[in-house]
């Protein structure tokens, strides 16, 4: 039997400097997000509310879950396919919401 880790989200308060601003703002930085895509979406919806969040993602499943709840790469308006291409070209991207 294969062990599947329990769905989990953990985040810390940190500073983030948006690309279009000259000052840092306090945000919630996700340090752990695990589970199935649906579990991650539910965890994100339960925890985000209106707070600013950032998440450095390096895999497609986590990126897709974040995108579906409103995160965008570097806060930029782009299609899902553009976000996928950016992830593949960079290997890791910063997803933001409510910033």
Layout of helices and strands, plus pairs?
Layout: E1 8-16, E2 25-34, H1 37-48, E3 53-57, H2 60-69, E4 72-73, H3 80-90, E5 93-97
Parallel strand pairs: 2-3
Antiparallel strand pairs: 1-2, 3-5, 4-5
Helix pairs in contact: 1-2, 2-3
Walk me through this protein's architecture.
This protein has one domain (8-97). It is of the alpha+beta class. A hairpin with an 8-residue loop joins strand 1 (8-16) and strand 2. Strands 1-2-3-5-4 form a 5-stranded mixed sheet. The model has no long low-confidence stretch (mean pLDDT 95). It starts with 7 loop residues before the first strand and ends with a strand. The chain is 33% helix and 31% strand. The chain is globular, with a radius of gyration of 13 Å. The protein is built from 3 helices and 5 strands.
Q: Count of DSSP E strands?
A: 5
Helix and strand run: EEHEHEHE
- Mean pLDDT equals 95
Cα-atom Rg, whole angstroms? 13 Å
Task: Note poorly predicted spans.
Answer: none
N-to-C terminal Cα separation, in Å?
Answer: 42 Å
State the strand order across the main sheet: 1-2-3-5-4
Structural class: alpha+beta
Could you give a quick summary of the protein structure above?
Helices cover 33% and strands 31% of the residues. It has helices at residues 37-48, 60-69, 80-90; strands at 8-16, 25-34, 53-57, 72-73, 93-97.
List its salient traits.
99 residues, alpha+beta, five-stranded mixed sheet, 31% strand, globular
